[in-house]
Amino acid sequence: MVVVMRPHAGEPAIEDVIERLNGYGFDVHRSSGVNQTVLGAIGVKPDFDVRHIQVLEGVADVYRVTSPYKFASRSWKKNDTLIDVAGRSIGGDTLTVIAGPCSVEDEEQMEATAAHVAAHGATLLRGGAFKPRTSPYSFQGLGEEGLRLLRAAGDRHDLGVITEVMDIAKIDLIHQYTDIFQVGARNMQNFDLLKELGHAGKPVFLKRGASATIEEWLMAAEYLIAHGNPDVILCERGIRTFETATRNTLDLSSIPVVKQKSHLPIFADPSHGTGRRDAVLPMARAAVAAGADGLMVEVHPNPPAAKSDGPQSLLFDQFVQLMTHVRAIAEVVGRNVAPAHVSA
Ligand code: PEP
Ligand code: MN
Predict the structure, then answer these.
(1) Which fold has domain 2-63?
(2) How far does Cα 268 stand from its chain's mean position?
(3) Which pTM does this prediction carry?
(4) Measuring from each residue's beta carbon to the nearest atom of ligand 1, which residues come in under 6 Å?
(5) Residues with CB under 5 A from ligand 2 (ion)
(6) How far apart are CA 122 and CA 57, in angstroms?
(7) Predicted confidence (pLDDT) per residue in 80-109, tens digit
(8) Separation of CA 114 and ligand 2 centre (Å)
(9) Residue range 52-73, pLDDT digits in tens
């Protein structure tokens, strides 16, 4: 931590700051110029609240030089984390595509979607059975029946499956069906849920909260890892800004920033990130170009009739086009995409 004193801060103020830092267990290196003093506080204290120092008399600024998270950081683990999901690797040279409807609705929908996305190179099937809806009057998901339909469709087409968990009480049930637990944007800082998922024994797909900073998001990942689960996949799904033309603002700049700060794989979700299907393809291309390890996209056999998120769900033809474009860009950035089983 670096403490910059105000110009002409008096000696008593400087000595008081040094004493306080020593009291908190830091070694202090002092450099004094003609007008100004800078204090270097040495000591590893990830949970130290810098405001203790910021509020002291004579202090101009305090800068942290180490991150408040450890296990999620690139300085703790240099190499990219690879995660095995149902026999397939996520991260590294692989570009993984997760596709499927927002909500599981019925068997026909799941069968048609699974067959289509698998044929074109998706390796994981998504579908919500417990849905976090803004309105209590909106479709809330099929519950366990939805989990069953998701798993069955995935198995028929050799796809792994991912679904959202909102509640600690549902972890055991969802565990019986899913390969990956999705933690949605609304639960990114549900710390009790994160702690429980720390020992759930399956990977967690951690979406960025709509108002979360990158540091808060990585701290949420730290909860999972610190509680025993190293298999964390991050997903940028857009943040809330002043812009209203899109549902969220897909912050693709978080991808290179996270890659530098963390070893964890990071995906992008251009469906929730934009909220409109015409924007999904360009933003999917951009996310892959920016270095994403994978994409999550919503696809539906009949989006106008979807029970949730129809306007942002891709038509089947659009998914084929997306896979074609993503393959081309993946090649440029040195990534492999699972092959299509049919010609596009
Ligand atoms: C979803 O994936 O359907 C979902 C609700 O996503 P988010 O948590 O990003 O809003
Ligand atoms: Mn959705």
Answers:
(1) Alpha-Beta Plaits (3.30.70)
(2) 8
(3) 0.95
(4) 102, 128, 132, 184-186, 207, 237, 272
(5) 102, 309
(6) 58
(7) 999 999 899 999 999 999 999 999 999 999
(8) 17
(9) 999 999 999 999 998 999 999 9
Under the banding of pLDDT at 50, 70 and 90, the label for residue 45 is confident
Q: State the ligand closest to the CA atom of 298.
A: 2
Per the rule left: phi > 0, alpha: psi between -120 and 50, beta: everything else, 86 is: left
The ligand 1 atom nearest the CA atom of 185: 8
Contact predicate 172/199, CB 8 Å: no
Atom of ligand 1 nearest to the CA of 208: 9
Report how far residue 299's alpha carbon sits from residue 235's, in angstroms, rounded to the nearest whole number. Answer: 18
- The token pair at 288 is 């892959």
Is the predicted pLDDT of residue 34 greater than 70, yes or no?
A: yes
Task: Report the distance separating Cα 207 and Cα 201, nearest Å.
Answer: 19
* pLDDT for the residue 86: 87
Strand partners, 183: 206
Strand duo 27-32 + 37-42: pairing: antiparallel
Domain ranges of the chain: 2-63, 83-332
Nearest CA to ligand 1 atom 8: 184
Q: Which of 104, 182, 248 is the pocket-test mutation for ligand 1 (most atoms within 8 Å of CB)?
A: 182
Domain 83-332 superfamily per CATH: Aldolase class I (3.20.20.70)
Ligand 2 centre distance from Cα of residue 35 (Å): 57
**Which tokens is 344 given?**
């596009």
How many A from CA of 130 to the centre of ligand 1? 11
Nearest atom in ligand 1 to 103's CA: 3
- The whole-chain average pLDDT of the chain stands at 97
Q: Find the mean pLDDT for residues 124-134.
A: 97
Question: Which of helix, strand or coil describes residue 158?
Answer: coil
